[in-house]
Amino acid sequence: MRRVIPITEQFQHFVEEVKGGFWGDVYGKTRQYLSKALELESSRLRDVHMNCDVYERNAQRQDYRNGFYERSFQTRLGELRIKIARTRQRAFLPSLIPAFQRRAEEVMLLIREAFLRGLSTRQVGRVVASIGLGPLSAQTVSRISRSLDAMVEAFHQQRLQDEWAYLFLDGVSLRVRRPAGRKRVQMLVAYGVRRDGSRQLLAFLRSQGESQSAWEGLLGDLYRRGIQGRNLQVIVTDGCPGLAAAIQTIYPHVAHQRCWAHKMRNILDRVRRRDRLAVKQDAQAIYEAGNRRAAERAAGVFCRRWRNSYPEIVERLERDLTDLLSFFQFPPHLRRKLRTTNLIERCFVEVRRRTRPMVCFVNLASVERIIYAIFHRFNQDWKNPTLRLFTHAA
User: Fold this and answer.
1) Is there a contact between 334 and 389 (Cβ–Cβ < 8 Å)?
2) Are 169 and 236 in contact (CB under 8 A)?
3) pTM of the entire predicted model
4) CB-CB contact of 360 with 344 (8 Å)
5) Could you tell me if 116 and 264 lie in one domain?
6) DSSP-derived secondary structure for 110-144
7) What is the Cα 125 distance to its own chain's centre?
8) Residue 40 falls inside a structural domain
9) Domain shared by 262 and 371, yes or no
10) CA distances from 291 to 102, 304, 392 (A)
11) 323 falls within a domain
């Protein structure tokens, strides 16, 4: 019978050291050979250009060798220091190294992906330095991230299919540094869900507020890009008056559902502390009812009980009741998802977490880059998973 030798902690450390030393030697030798190959390629290109050997006298000579200059180039193997051959008139970069580029394309992709994954510009620099790619300043990361501008523009122009059944609309406020001081900028966002439960953040628009014209700009953009509302069953919003008016302009035949979470906050913020529990229970009885008729009866009870104490709250509830009860036209298992904007609010939690370390943005373009980065990551993560409740409804 073979004897089993226990693996001690010291042996595990020894194995890790051997692995680290082995791969360190491999990467070191590979970097060395790659640098040498690039230097030889540079010298070869110069020799072809000169069409004569070193020290050879030639009456047809047009140029003269002028030694070498050293250049750094970051690759996935680490930073290379390469001697680039040159003449008096020009230098000869190997074909692997594009002009004016200090990093290989895979390193640029790594930096952009780290930025897209939610790291700040300083954190990206630390991560790149920790894996042996040399120091990287926050300013350099910001400059590389500007390559996202083309991707942002493509996102805004992307054609959309008219296949969305549920549309959630809301806005998030961000701070931007402007010449006159810090200003609040509103980012209006559209979140769509198909009948099969697949979802996507469809659009965002920078604006100064949540006016009707601002929301018409976002909804009009969705309409022009392909969402004409033929399959759209409901639009869920936070209750912004400008947004409600914009929906009537762009999608007048689509049901509108106001968010009960926002409505409850508005109600409870205006009642006395001693009445909060009773008011909350009476309001919850409305949206927790089994059907629309029972909800209307619960709303009547609420209005009769609290009209004298809080006439303004009762008046607003009666005015908004039709939009607050739109979710009752859907199957019971979908109602909880459709009566609030919680789906899009969860995305805003990530937006705030991602932007909190920045305090405020230095310009408007950086706002769009960050929002695009967050939304792009969400959309990539959502390609396969679906919302099960909506899948069951389909």
Assistant:
1) yes
2) yes
3) 0.71
4) no
5) no
6) HHHHHHHTT--HHHHHHHHHHTTS----HHHHHHH
7) 19
8) no
9) yes
10) 65, 20, 20
11) yes
Per the CB < 8 A criterion, the answer to whether 217 and 236 are in contact is no
Closest CA to 240 of 259, 222, 268, 265: 259
DSSP letters of 61-101? ----EEEEEEEEEEETTEEEEEEEEEESS-B---TTS-TT-
Evaluate whether residue 205 is within a structural domain.
yes
Of the residues 145, 169, 192, which one is the last residue of a structural domain? 145
Last residue of a domain, one of 114, 145, 176: 145
Domain-embedded: residue 245: yes
> Which among 183, 112, 123 has a CA at the least distance from the CA of 151?
112
Residue 305 pLDDT level (bands cut at 50, 70, 90): very high
- What are the tens digits of pLDDT across the range 251-304? 999 999 999 999 999 999 999 999 999 999 999 999 999 999 999 999 999 999
**Residue written as token pair 């595990």:** 12
Instruction: Answer for the pair 149, 136: CB distance below 8 angstroms, yes or no.
Output: no
The distance from CA 352 to its chain's CA centroid, rounded to whole angstroms, is 11
Are 71 and 82 spatial neighbours (Cβ–Cβ below 8 Å)? yes
CB-CB contact of 204 with 188 (8 Å) = yes
Tokens of 321: 């009741």
